[in-house]
Every structure is written in C-alpha cells, then in structure tokens.
Design goal:
By secondary structure, this protein is of the alpha+beta class. The chain is 54% helix and 29% strand. It contains two helices and two strands, in the order αββα. A two-stranded antiparallel ribbon has the order 1-2. A hairpin with a 2-residue loop joins β1 and β2. The longest helix is centred in the last third of the chain and has 20 residues. The N and C termini lie close together (9 Å).
Amino acid sequence: MRAVLIILGLLLLAAGVWIVSGHGSYQTTDTLVQVGSAKLTATHDQAIPTWAGIAGIVVGAVLALGGFLKKH
C-alpha cells in the first residue's frame, strides 16, 4: 500500500508539472459544414487548464508524502 501511494503520488506530481509547463493539450473536432454524407471538419488543439496541473501537483505531493511518512 505504501509503495502504491508513493508511485501514484509521483506520477500525479510529474503529470502536474508537465501540464503547468505548457505541454499538456488535447484535440477537439468540430463539424463546420455537412451536406448529405460529405462534411467539413476542423481540428483544434486545446490546452489543459493550468488549475488541473496545479491540482495534480498538490494531490501528488500529498499522496507521495503520505506514502513516505506512513509507518507500516
């Protein structure tokens, strides 16, 4: 259990730092025009919000510290 907390905390911490540094993004696709079976789509890159990265850092740090400080 202790090792799981430490590993999960470090993974969340690393993911949070990755997002805050501006590298985290995802793609969305919008349909612009659709005529019959033909359609024109556009794909946009969306950045993951900074608050999600900060939350990952905080939760990851708490989990990792909880794993390190757990006695059993």
